[in-house]
Design goal:
37% of the residues lie in helices and 17% in strands. Strands 2-1-3-4 form a 4-stranded parallel beta sheet, with helices on both faces.
């Protein structure tokens, strides 16, 4: 089986389950595992479809949010598209298991699921918010993987009743009085100066955004990060 992954978190997960030998192409943003020397086929939203076609993949992995439908539709003319859209830690468990079945790596996938389950321990209750953009300020609503990840550690998203990524001024959000404001460095590259600007509440960050935004085996690291940081 020949596989192209247009999702950095899935690239890492495919290698983690032992299916790395099937991967023949990746994106420019696939940074884990480190040291990959596979052909890089452009960004998640700017893939080189002709180069993907030339690799003759059997499967191309995409993500509903990270990749564009028009690219997936074009690729679907010559390869099987597998689209993912995990919105919860439970969805990630299902995803790892499905990848294990697809690539006949069920045993390793089960081991990773066991690790993830072991890290899934609720801590003391706390409230939180997570910005993902500035100018305008945008935040993680309840219908997001990020929100579910943090809530699985005992948090309650004060914007959980908002869908997806609402645009709300920072002063209005800070007035809600969150216990913690998490400041990931992607998709917006928040800085230490941003943390100072938001300093009326406890700010954790900036930190590596992939700990919050990447799903798959990176979810395990995200849960470990939460336990260390809180």
């Amino acid at each position: 089986m020949r596989v192209v992954s247009l999702v950095p978190s899935l690239t890492e997960t495919l290698f983690a389950i032992g299916a790395g030998e099937s991967v023949v192409g990746i994106t420019d943003f696939c940074i884990f595992p480190e040291g990959l020397t596979l052909p890089r086929l452009g960004g998640t939203k700017t893939p080189d479809v002709d180069r993907i076609r030339a690799l003759r993949p059997d499967i191309v992995y995409v993500n509903v949010e990270e990749n564009l439908k028009r690219h997936a539709d074009e690729i679907a003319k010559f390869a099987r598209i597998v689209a993912t859209e995990p919105k919860s830690v439970d969805d990630v468990v299902d995803l790892i298991r499905r990848l294990g079945e697809t690539h006949r790596r069920e045993k390793r996938a089960a081991e990773l699921v066991q690790q993830l389950t072991a890290e899934r321990q609720a801590l003391s209750a706390f409230t939180f918010v997570v910005p993902i953009w500035k100018k305008p300020w945008m935040w993680c609503g309840g219908d997001t993987y990020v929100s579910n990840l943090v809530e699985s550690a005992g948090g309650r998203n004060l914007l959980r009743d908002h869908p997806r990524y609402p645009k709300i001024d920072q002063s209005e959000v800070l007035a809600l009085g969150p216990d913690v404001l998490f400041l990931p460095d992607e998709p917006y590259a928040f800085t230490a100066n941003d943390a100072k600007e938001l300093g009326r509440v406890r700010v954790i960050g900036p930190f590596a955004g992939h700990l919050f935004t990447w799903h798959g085996v990176r979810t395990i690291e995200g849960l470990r990060f939460l336990r260390r940081a809180l």
